[in-house]
Backbone:
């Protein structure tokens, strides 16, 4: 009984196994059939895409050819030229198409394609050049218009030619009539011509004799006039030379007199030093009553100067130049100079000693006299300036600086000579007492700026001459400034003066000035 029960329990297992095998076979067949259909579909899609790409390529080629044809004809639409120019991989195809069209056109012209028709070219690499601005239709239209115009011109020319032929015919008839008339006259004119010629020859001979006689008379008169003119010219030159010599001599005499005359011969002391204080401070007997103001300067001279005279202060000194070479110079040497620093009362001011020639043997002290060439108690003389004023020896013209300093002292500057414009700024008049003359540019034989310097020197000389003619006393700056206590460098070298003059020479700068000012 036990064995039967075990046999019955194996049947479901067998059935399940058979079902599983059959199911697996069924699914496998289904999957195989489905995969076969999908592969067929993929092949069909791939084939369709290939055909589509081929069609698109053919379409692109067709569109490219159409664009090229439209551009060549001159009926291109918007975007045709830009599309061709934007081609990348299709450049070569475009070039081939243009080349094909050009070759087809060349067959129509046995002697070569005309330049105005050959509108679109291909370069050596087969790439199309820039698209033409005008197409073949435009060219053909222009040629057609030109042909029509030429035909009109030809018709006009034919009409003119016909008219000219008619005119020539008339001229020929007139020429024939004139020939007949000329033949008639040719027979009669020679006799008349000979008779008239003999009459004219006779009149010519008479006129010739008359002209010769008049010519001789005029020549003799002209010779006499020339002799008299030459004699008058000689006398004029002689008188002019005498006048020039007299004028020059007068100028030389006047210059010598001016040089010998001491411009400050009649200067009087304006006050004196009351006492000397420490730290180079002095008190003077001038104050608010005399309109003294801070900045006013004085030259200090000893108390016996009025009796001893100018010669007592003339001394010979050794002066070095920029190269260290010394030369002896005779100069007027003052005891010192002072500058007012404070006005203390009606007749009292305090001043600082700004220079002192010899502190030990000739120092500034009580009793010494105060001189200022242009300042007077309560007023000041009028002056004018002309020339180059380099007061510190730095190679720069300090005229404007001098004008400011003297004006601050209360000294009236009527005028100064502007070296740039070479004209007076202000006016030299009857109130001007002194013309202070500065330095002139220095020349040499090989100076490249000689002409410019000569013009500047002439302008300065003419300015001095004009002031002298107005009665103004000219004084050298070396004499003038020390006599009023104004401190300047007296031994400025010629090189520095030339350097200071450079800005006033046309087309010349300080860097153009050669060493030595030459």
Residues:
């Amino acid at each position: 009984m036990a064995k039967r029960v075990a046999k019955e329990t194996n049947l479901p297992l067998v059935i399940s196994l058979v079902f599983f095998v059959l199911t697996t076979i069924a699914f496998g067949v289904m999957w195989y059939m489905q995969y076969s259909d999908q592969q067929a579909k993929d092949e069909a899609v791939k084939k369709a895409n290939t055909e589509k790409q081929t069609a698109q390529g053919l379409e692109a080629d067709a569109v490219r050819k159409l664009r090229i044809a439209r551009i060549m004809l001159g009926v291109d639409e918007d975007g045709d030229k830009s599309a061709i120019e934007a081609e990348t991989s299709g450049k070569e195809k475009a070039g081939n198409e243009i080349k094909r069209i050009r070759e087809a056109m060349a067959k129509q012209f046995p002697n070569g394609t005309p330049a105005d028709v050959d509108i679109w070219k291909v370069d050596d690499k087969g790439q199309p050049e820039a698209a033409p601005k005008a197409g073949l239709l435009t060219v053909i239209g222009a040629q057609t218009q030109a042909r029509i115009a030429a035909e009109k011109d030809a018709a006009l020319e034919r009409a003119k030619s016909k008219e000219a032929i008619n005119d020539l015919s008339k001229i020929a008839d007139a020429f024939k009539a004139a020939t007949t008339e000329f033949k008639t006259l040719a027979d009669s004119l020679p006799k008349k011509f000979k008779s008239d010629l003999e009459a004219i020859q006779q009149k010519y001979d008479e006129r010739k004799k008359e002209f010769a006689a008049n010519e001789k008379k005029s020549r003799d008169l002209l010779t006499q006039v020339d002799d008299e003119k030459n004699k008058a010219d000689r006398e004029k030159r002689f008188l002019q030379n005498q006048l020039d010599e007299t004028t020059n001599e007068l100028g030389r005499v006047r210059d010598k007199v001016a040089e010998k005359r001491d411009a400050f011969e009649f200067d009087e002391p304006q006050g004196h030093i009351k006492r000397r204080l420490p730290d180079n401070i002095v008190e003077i007997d001038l104050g608010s009553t005399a309109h003294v103001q801070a900045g006013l300067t004085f030259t200090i001279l000893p108390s016996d100067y009025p009796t001893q005279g100018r010669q007592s202060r003339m001394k010979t000194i050794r002066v070095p130049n920029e190269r260290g070479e010394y030369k002896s110079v005779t100069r007027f040497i003052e005891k010192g100079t002072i500058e007012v620093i404070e006005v203390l009362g009606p007749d009292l001011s305090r001043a600082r000693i700004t220079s002192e020639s010899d502190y030990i043997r000739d120092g500034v002290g009580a009793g010494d006299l105060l001189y200022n060439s242009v300042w007077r108690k309560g007023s000041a003389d009028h002056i004018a300036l002309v020339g180059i004023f380099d007061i510190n020896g730095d190679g720069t013209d300090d005229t404007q600086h001098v004008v400011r300093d003297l004006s601050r002292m209360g000294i009236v500057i009527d005028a100064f000579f502007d070296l740039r414009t070479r004209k007076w700024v202000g006016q030299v008049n009857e109130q001007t007492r002194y013309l202070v003359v500065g330095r002139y540019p220095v020349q040499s034989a090989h100076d490249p700026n000689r002409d410019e310097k000569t013009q500047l020197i002439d302008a300065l000389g003419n300015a001095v001459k004009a002031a002298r003619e107005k009665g103004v006393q000219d004084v050298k700056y070396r004499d003038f400034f020390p006599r009023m206590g104004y401190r300047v460098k007296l031994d400025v070298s010629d090189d520095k003066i030339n350097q200071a003059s450079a800005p006033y020479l046309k087309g010349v700068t300080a860097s153009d000035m050669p060493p030595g000012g030459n």
User: Anything to note?
Assistant: Residues 376-518 form one domain. Residues 136-260 form the longest helix (125 residues). Residues 208 and 403 are 81 Å apart (CA to CA). Confidence is low (pLDDT under 50) at residues 257-263.
